Amino acid sequence: MEITVFNFVIVIFNIFGRFCSVKPTSDFIQFRRINALDGITCQASQNMFNVTEVQSGIKCSLLCTEAQACVGVFHQAQTKECFGCSSFTADETLSRAGTRFYGRVPGTNVAEGKQTTMSSVSSKHVNYGGDKGVDGITNQDLWQGFCFHTEYESSPWWRVDLGAKYGIFSVKLYNILNSGGVWKARDLRLSIGITLETMDIVGSVLGQIDDIHTFNFSAGIEGRYVQVTLMGANVLHLCEIQVFGFSV
Q: Class assignment of domain 115-247?
């Protein structure tokens, strides 16, 4: 399912407990319009609030910022109803004509602590397994033991299973910093898929990647599995891989 979105940012100024300004800034809470989820709403058990006389989707989204557990809102322009949801899944949603969905893009790394797999683990660094890539530690010193490290091989890869389907909007790779550039990660390919059989290449970098390299997907990509593959023969090592998105 393709996700079509546009972005807007909401800045919160708390004056006597009210929201009073909307404008771009570096300090923001971000929402995305996701057309693919229009025409539904979450079940009563997942509904955090149902407010009437809400004039726009932006104002509806503002209500979501007041509730930390809110993942998004459905706004009905004709009736001016606003429904805030704590969660929802495609097989549990209710049909509701005319609603438009605005998803809250969380600052949460949905890959942290998830199950990982990799093509090999270095025999010289047996404690540098795949779990080091999702341990929540962004220390980029390879020798302090917070990075994963494969053997030297053809097309080494690392993969995380997010455990469920997510709408993914960015993936951040933390390169090692202490190799003098000789062994830093380079020539990488990023793949995302809902199943292992449907993995698609969604980004690549020829040459050395940045110290912190971010792949952004303005339209969002649905996926459960995220894989990084080195193109060619070499070792693959990174110190953290973060995946940002929300459950769909």
A: mainly beta
